[in-house]
Design a protein that fits this description.
single chain, Ribose 5-phosphate Isomerase B, Chain: A, 16% strand, five-stranded parallel beta sheet, alpha/beta, 153 residues
Length: 153
């Protein structure tokens, strides 16, 4: 069974806890093993980097899995997660953007903003992330392969 790794920093902690409770009471648990990578308590001095590194490493080591990260803006966690080869993290501010990210980029990590998204938008974006599939057209496969090309830079 693929895993769904979830983590946050202090600004995303409340949304992460709410999302975990909701996912535990949904059909998602029949498709994914939901794993909370923390924090388990609110830590006001934590850094988003730790959450992003933890999720990115776990998703990279479990290719069929996906990850969800939550911080204030979603920017920092997406930047940190995308530093890992094989990770395609997107900021999922709207369900429509999430759909495109799954369809074209085969996004495997969804980054959410606790400051700029309400609960309903977060829920719809997560639902879209978990229900959308990659469209394996040649141009998307080619473009996504270039994301991990070590010879570009």
């Amino acid at each position: 069974m693929p895993r769904l790794f979830i983590a946050s920093d202090h600004r995303g902690f409340a949304d992460k806890q709410r999302l975990l409770a909701q996912l535990g009471n949904s059909n998602v648990k029949n498709v994914y093993e939901v794993i909370d990578l923390g924090p388990t308590t609110l830590k006001p001095e934590d850094d988003f980097n730790d959450a992003a590194i933890n999720v990115a490493r776990n998703v990279r080591e479990n290719p069929a899995s996906r990850g969800i990260l939550i911080c204030g803006s979603a920017h920092g966690i997406s930047i940190q997660a995308n530093r890992f080869k094989g990770i395609r993290a997107i900021c999922g501010y709207t369900p429509e953007l999430v759909h495109i990210g799954r369809l074209h980029e085969d996004a495997n990590v969804l980054c959410l903003s606790s400051d700029f998204m309400d609960d309903a938008t977060i829920d719809r974006s997560v639902s879209m992330f978990l229900s959308s599939e990659f469209l394996p057209e040649e141009r998307y496969i080619r473009r996504n392969a270039r994301l991990d090309d070590d010879n570009i830079y």
